[in-house]
Design goal:
Bound molecules: 5'-O-[(S)-ethoxy(hydroxy)phosphoryl]adenosine
CATH topology of one domain: GMP Synthetase, Chain A, domain 3
Largest sheet: 7 strands, mixed
CATH class of one domain: Alpha Beta
CATH superfamily of one domain: ANL, C-terminal domain
Radius of gyration: 25 Å
Strand order of the largest sheet: 5-4-17-16-18-19-20
CATH architecture of one domain: 2-Layer Sandwich
Number of strands: 29
Structural class: alpha/beta
Strand content: 15-25%
Distance between the termini: 37 Å
Number of helices: 22
Length: about 675
């Protein structure tokens, strides 16, 4: 940093509040005309034919939007299609020998694998035939509990091919979390694997899957992928209901399975996500609307073309991987990358090594990763030639302007637009972000709503707030990628997402407003800055965790009477889990109890939910009506001033908790 030119550059970047699309990028962008905003507005909802038109349909739809029974909207009704055929078969003629999936295993240069569209098509067909033979029928939910191995997208597309919805459970989730999700979906099939590599070591995954299956309340058939190529000691179970993936595929060598024609509104997959209650929500996505949405946004926002080598470093176990590693990129016929491991193995430059080796053209990652890269320093990206990159993206949590500018300069060399994309599991794909070839970027602000998207910031009455004021983000009109309901729970769907700002007795779509439960503000140019969740959901390293889920794990520990969990600021993770627990009268506040609390959280959810701190306290701050004052506990976690405590029933506990938290 002593280089004067460097210092000057940093100073200039620091002051600069907006950035125009780099000219060379804008010239070649998939969307290069800002008139699209007005055009979509004028033609809404028919504008979304542009998205549906990117797909191959078996049967043309007759209605773009059926909004007769809000909020149960339907898109492209009357149409039918198959997602696997759209991601594979239709590319075979022109791109059969081009790489569809480029997989990088964690051990360096040991077992990387490439699948051309032809090869991927073949393996998906064989897997589809094998699953069918096991008994999987149309509409049977197949659970996948797998890390970043190529057989995960293969299994997803195989299910899509035979019309069986998948439910992917993040491999880092615990055995209990797997069982809860399989029970909730009545899922009788599981695809999992023996293990995978983490920071150089093979990790046993199958035992966790077995522990989960022990708590599934119905019979299951399980398929196990041999990722570790054995020798590492995690052998397969031998039960009749457990099958080796390689054997199954070999037994169906050369099989072809006709893609099942699915109605546009048929379920493509379920994805469980955290909400305010302890029970995870099964978000339902459909075939026509979802696929149109991720295809259109991959093209318009990530600027994906068939010639690209596109790299998203998310995990397919989350929605970002579903939409922007698997379905969006493959529907466009591009090369999509998958990396098994962590960015710091064997050294902090692993991602940059991958970008250089494969000449990646886009990188889509999370602010938590960018903050870690910043902390590690510029020497790591500087070791590599990153000039193949054309566009950078972020997703999952707010990005602070400093991290944005670091990414823009040190990874993008000021030549790549950065798209800060706001969206959710429930929205299926991107909703608020800049179109990279036409819109000015403002670091820290996601941007305006995408063309055709009606996102506004409102106050508690639902009235739009003035520029600069904080309020609630809402979405007025429906969009094709929206969730259709919560699996088997229409009532919770209406309550959680619509009741707050809608007239729920009305049949008029104009009276219905979607509430994502995020705080936001908007500037004079209509740019939206998302501030974070307004419900009891934490965002830890870009992962959504319900405080209730964590609290119920903690109160299940013997000796704990009551618990409250809040998010405290964290330099890299964004938010970290802070737990406050009241012990039972005869229970000592010991280190041993603290460990049991941490273990209970890991067992119920997984290591991602591990509390940063567990503070024992004789009481929790409560309002007169008995509600825990979480804001105060957050302030304590962050070491901030506490503000007004006079509305508390027990203001005297606050000093005590503060003293214990700072120990
Ligand atoms: C947050 C991830 C600020 C937000 C795709 C949302 C963001 C939740 C952004 C959804 C962003 C996502 N800026 N906040 N660009 N993107 N979020 O369901 O709070 O895992 O509600 O989907 O992440 O998390 P989910």
């Amino acid at each position: 940093m002593s280089d004067p030119e460097e210092v000057e550059l940093e100073a200039r970047l620091e002051e600069q509040e907006s950035f125009d699309p780099p000219a060379a990028f804008a010239e070649q962008a998939n969307v290069d005309d800002a008139s699209i905003y007005d055009e979509f507005e004028a033609a809404w909802p028919d504008c979304w034919e542009a998205a549906a038109g990117m797909l191959d349909w078996d049967e043309a739809y007759d209605t773009v939007l059926d909004d007769s029974t809000p909020p149960f909207y339907e898109w492209f009704t009357g149409g039918s299609l198959n997602a696997s055929a759209n991601c594979l078969d239709r590319h075979l003629d022109e791109r059969g020998d081009e790489v569809a999936v480029e997989w990088v295993g964690e051990p360096v240069d040991e077992d990387n694998r490439s699948f051309t569209y032809g090869e991927l098509h073949r393996e998906v067909n064989e897997t589809a035939a094998a699953l069918r033979d096991l008994g999987v029928g149309e509409d049977d939910v197949v659970t996948m509990y797998m890390p970043m191995v190529p057989e995960l997208p293969v299994a997803m597309l195989a299910c899509a091919r035979i019309g069986a919805p998948h439910s992917v459970v993040f491999a880092g989730f615990s055995a209990d979390a797997l069982a809860t999700r399989m029970n909730a979906a009545d899922s009788e099939y599981l695809v999992t694997c023996d293990g995978y590599y983490r920071r150089g070591d093979p990790l046993d995954h199958l035992s966790k899957a077995h522990d989960g299956l022990a708590n599934v309340d119905h019979g299951t058939e399980t398929v196990v992928v041999d990722r570790l190529r054995d020798g590492d000691g995690f052998g397969h179970g031998s039960g009749d209901d457990e099958h080796d993936y390689d054997d199954l595929v070999a037994a169906h060598e050369g099989a072809t399975v006709e893609p099942v024609s699915r109605d546009a509104e048929d379920m493509l997959f379920l994805m469980y996500t955290s909400g305010t209650t302890g029970e995870p929500k099964g978000v339902k996505h459909t075939t026509g609307g979802y696929l149109s949405w991720v295809s259109w946004t991959s093209r318009a926002v990530l600027d994906v073309t068939p010639e690209d080598t596109y790299f998203c470093s998310a995990d397919i176990g989350w929605i970002t991987g579903h939409s922007y590693i698997v379905y969006g990129p493959l529907s466009l016929g591009t090369t999509t990358m998958m990396y098994e491991g962590t960015p710091d193995h064997p050294d902090n430059d692993r991602l940059w090594q991958i970008v250089e080796d494969y000449e990646a053209t886009q990188l889509y990652t999370a602010p938590t990763a960018i903050r870690a890269f910043m902390k590690w320093g510029t020497e790591y990206p500087e070791r590599h030639d990153l000039s193949s990159l054309r566009l950078l993206g972020t997703v999952g949590e707010p990005i602070n302007p400093r991290a944005w500018k670091w990414y823009y300069k040190h990874i993008g060399d000021e030549a790549c637009p950065v798209v800060d994309t706001w969206w959710q599991t429930e929205t299926g794909g991107m909703m608020v972000t800049t179109l990279p070839g036409v819109k000015t970027m403002k670091p820290g602000s996601a941007g305006p709503p995408l063309p055709g998207v009606d996102a506004t910031v409102v106050d508690t009455n639902g009235d739009e707030v003035e520029a600069g004021r904080a309020g609630y983000l809402t979405v007025g009109r429906p969009w094709p990628g929206m969730l259709r309901t919560l699996y088997r729970n229409d009532e919770r769907f209406v309550d959680e997402y619509w009741a707050e700002f809608s007239d729920t007795d009305s049949d008029d779509p104009a009276d219905w407003v979607y509430s994502p439960e995020d705080g936001a503000k908007v500037d004079e140019d209509g740019y939206i800055t998302v501030l974070g969740r307004v419900d009891d959901v934490l965002n830890v390293s870009g992962h959504r965790l319900g405080t209730m889920e964590i609290e119920s794990a903690i109160v299940g520990v013997e000796g704990v009477a009551e618990a409250a969990v809040v998010g405290g600021d964290h330099e890299v993770k964004g938010e970290a889990v802070y737990a406050y627990a009241i012990t039972e009268d005869d229970q000592a506040e010991s280190e041993e109890l603290r460990e049991r609390v941490v273990e209970a959280v890991e067992a119920a959810i997984g290591p991602i939910a591990r509390p940063e701190r567990v503070v024992f306290t004789p009481d929790l701050p409560k309002t007169r009506s008995g509600k825990i004052m979480r804001r105060l506990l957050e302030n304590i976690a962050d070491g901030d001033a506490l503000g007004d405590t006079s509305t508390l029933r027990n203001p005297e506990v606050v000093d005590d908790i503060q003293a214990r938290a700072s120990d």
